[in-house]
């Protein structure tokens, strides 16, 4: 296991290095000059050149890249071209919205999907088993922003129980307001996420329910609960964990739509404005932090799968395939 | 976006009791009816629309009825006309993205399946990272580089989905390549390209077609999301996502505009997903009885 950990860590670092090269190159391929965003319309060539010099975009690309890497290793994400503020603190302040939003939605989705998926599989011939499968079919077909709009119309505009959007300007120093602002966004993401998770849990449970080892355990006298607990859970959880990791990562990065519906100052909206303004340091910073998060989540998911399923040991990455 | 929906092929369950077959094809029929309705709407919109796209004679935010089946939007444009145009854009977005995803994904997946050892591990992990990278971010980058058009959106969605398709194809092809009949074909002197075309692709296509159908639904959802953010087809093209975004402010006063596009979107995606489920049962006898 220790050897695997080392190999997997090395792989993590190599991926991160590769990702940063790709990120940097991709952003420099975008047309449009960030210096234009800094200067007024009709600026003289001298003014534009001065702007370029001030943000360092006049230097050759390899030099810009090594400069960025040097900053990264000392934990500095650079300075925004547009606002001239450091990117690091800006990203951190946005994480205060995005991380609680994503994690709460993720936990809620798991709490909904695991029991519901199990029931949908175990009781698949009953009306409520079928109903659960049907609801999850509906859930995966609903656009997340539309669900958000409906929840706002029902719970904020009609009932007036919760705010329709926004986040308290003082953030978490007003905990009650902050939590109220996040209830509907969390619910929106959690419902959509659990709809697809239910299908995976159901599918994994069906595999286990039909497996020979569960039948053998039952034949040897174990009750259904005992057999499921000792032999079913472990087997069913391996493919589910693999999906969970990917879901969590893509929700973290994909919260931008929900953030837009609820006008939340999260990582997604920071990225959106950064792209629109060609603010490379901001875009780079956000994407670097998100990539790091995605890789870490993958690392943890791989590790968890390996602990659960000894058959996977010896392979570098990935689980149920 | 639930891209994880389609990450892995579902493993076969035991054969169902006989008589379940008819219920399976009911799934297929229901799916075809739902998706067919939207497709028909899209087809008709090519030749006929109730009102010209820029006609504002109906007055602002008129309710349903009185010459306007669904009423009008905040600029006085007929909502049903926009919904029809939107269905065309949705179908185009779905088809376009799936074509991009299929061509790129199958090519990449087949190539990746031949990799061995560390290269194999690296490719697998690379595809995982690409899959975790959300469609929306990729689309935002592409739209920033090009411009907000339906083409940019389709390209972005197709590129993002090709990673999912490639991952699936890689796994499927690896499984087929381990079969004895591949060894037999190779020892009898069949070249690799011929083996892939003659033995590998025919064996993976049922699973592939089902996955592509699911990708169609996801692409429609993704395009709506992009349009909602203002990154899809520009005005005056009425994409469902943009219609919903425009109607959000008047949800309680004029609900028709905020409900109709969403309902049609859900019907189309459910329809296509049902088709995928039905196809899986019809094309691949091993998975009959599984409706995930």
UniProtKB/TrEMBL annotation, chain B:
Membrane topology category: Multi-pass membrane protein
Transmembrane segments: 28-51, 93-115, 122-144, 150-169, 208-231, 251-276
Signal peptide: none
Pfam family, one: BPD_transp_1
Location relative to the cell: Cell membrane
Stretches the record annotates as Disordered: 1-23
Main subcellular location of this protein, as a coarse class: membrane
Keyword terms, alphabetized: Cell membrane, Membrane, Transmembrane, Transmembrane helix, Transport
Ranges where the ABC transmembrane type-1 domain occurs: 87-276
Keyword Membrane belongs to the record: yes
Top-rank lineage group of the source organism: Bacteria
Family: Belongs to the binding-protein-dependent transport system permease family.
Name of this chain's protein: ABC transporter permease
């Amino acid at each position: 296991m220790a050897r695997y950990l080392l190999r997997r860590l090395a792989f993590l670092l190599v991926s991160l290095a590769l990702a940063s090269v790709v990120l940097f190159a991709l952003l420099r391929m975008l047309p449009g000059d960030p210096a234009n965003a800094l200067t007024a319309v009709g600026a003289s060539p001298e003014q534009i050149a001065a702007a370029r010099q001030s943000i360092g975009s006049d230097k050759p690309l390899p030099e810009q890249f090594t400069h960025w890497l040097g900053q990264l290793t000392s934990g500095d994400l650079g300075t925004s071209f547009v606002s001239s503020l450091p990117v690091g603190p800006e990203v951190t302040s946005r994480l205060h919205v995005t991380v609680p939003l994503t994690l709460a939605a993720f936990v809620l989705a798991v709490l909904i999907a695991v029991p519901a998926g199990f029931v949908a599989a175990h009781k698949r011939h009953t009306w409520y088993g079928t109903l659960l499968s049907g609801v999850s079919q509906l859930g995966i077909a609903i656009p997340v922003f539309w669900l958000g709009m409906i929840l706002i119309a029902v719970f904020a505009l009609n009932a007036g129980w919760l705010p329709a959007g926004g986040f308290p300007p003082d953030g978490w120093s007003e905990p009650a307001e902050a939590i109220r602002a996040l209830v509907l966004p969390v619910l929106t993401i959690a419902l959509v996420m659990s709809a697809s998770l239910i299908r995976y849990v159901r599918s994994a449970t069906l595999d286990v329910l039909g497996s020979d080892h569960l039948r053998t355990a039952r034949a040897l006298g174990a009750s259904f609960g005992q057999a499921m607990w000792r032999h079913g859970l472990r087997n069913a959880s391996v493919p589910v964990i693999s999906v969970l990791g990917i879901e969590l990562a893509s929700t973290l990065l994909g919260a931008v739509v929900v953030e837009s519906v609820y006008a939340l100052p999260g990582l997604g909206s920071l990225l959106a404005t950064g792209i629109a303004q060609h603010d490379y340091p901001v875009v780079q910073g956000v994407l670097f932090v998100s990539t790091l998060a995605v890789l870490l989540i993958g690392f943890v998911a791989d590790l968890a799968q390996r602990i659960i399923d000894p058959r996977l040991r010896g392979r570098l990455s990935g689980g149920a395939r | 976006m639930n891209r994880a929906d389609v990450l892995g092929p579902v493993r076969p369950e035991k054969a169902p009791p006989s008589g379940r077959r008819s219920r399976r094809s009911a799934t297929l029929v229901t799916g075809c009816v739902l998706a067919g309705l939207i497709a028909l709407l899209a087809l008709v919109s090519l030749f006929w629309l109730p009102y010209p796209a820029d006609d504002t004679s109906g007055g602002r935010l008129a309710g349903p009825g009185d010459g306007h089946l669904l009423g009008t939007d905040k600029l006085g444009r007929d909502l049903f006309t926009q919904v029809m145009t939107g269905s065309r854009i949705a179908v185009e977005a779905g088809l376009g993205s799936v074509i991009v995803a299929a061509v790129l994904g199958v090519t990449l997946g087949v190539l990746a399946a031949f990799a061995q050892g560390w290269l194999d591990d690296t490719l697998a992990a690379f595809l995982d990272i690409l899959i975790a990278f959300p469609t929306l971010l990729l689309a935002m980058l592409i739209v920033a580089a090009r411009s907000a058009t339906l083409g940019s959106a389709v390209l972005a969605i197709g590129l993002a989905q090709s990673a999912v398709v490639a991952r699936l194809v890689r796994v499927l092809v690896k499984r087929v390549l381990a079969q004895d009949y591949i060894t037999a074909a190779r020892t009898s002197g069949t070249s690799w390209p011929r083996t892939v075309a003659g033995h590998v692709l025919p064996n993976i296509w049922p699973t592939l077609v089902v996955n592509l159908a699911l990708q169609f639904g996801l692409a429609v959802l993704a395009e709506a999301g992009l349009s909602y953010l203002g990154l899809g087809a520009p005005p005056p093209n009425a994409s469902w996502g943009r219609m919903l975004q425009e109607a959000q402010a008047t949800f309680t006063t004029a609900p028709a505009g905020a409900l109709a596009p969403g309902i049609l979107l859900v019907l189309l995606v459910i329809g296509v997903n049902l088709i995928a489920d039905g196809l899986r049962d019809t094309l691949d006898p091993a998975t009959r009885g599984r409706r995930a």
